[in-house]
Amino acid sequence: MDSYASYWTVLAFGFFYMAVDEASAIHELLTRPIRMLLGNGTLGIFYYAWVIPFIVIICALALFFVRFFLHLPPKTKLTFLVATILYIGGAIGFELIDGRYAELYGEDLTYSMLTVIEESLEMAGAIIFNWALLVYFANNFKEVRIQVDAVHEKVGPLHKT
Prior knowledge:
By secondary structure, this protein is mostly helical. The protein has helices at about 5-25, 30-35, 50-70, 75-105, 110-140.
């Protein structure tokens, strides 16, 4: 078995979570409880308080993925790094800026423009990562096979009783 299979599995689940979260904004449900824990005062860049546990999670994941990241080919490593910086820069970095702005001025047109930049960085990061992933697979695997096993249930003759 590939010694890096667990890393690929965590990446797959991580991207699945991010897709579900992007559609349903699960992370935003953390803002109110975390604000209450912090005293509901002025939070500045942590106005959207969900970023706090996610910063911790990202740091833990960074430590987890170091070995995996270092084994990647140089071009893949660079492209994954650029994609990660864009995605996290948008998702967390711009969310910190958005939060500070929203706390000071509310959610006006400028806030909406900042949000567009945030979302654009996230999407750019995701697109670049997917492209890098496809290039990595094309360079490292000659073929990909997908096997679907159908489950056949044996059905006997129908009997009326």
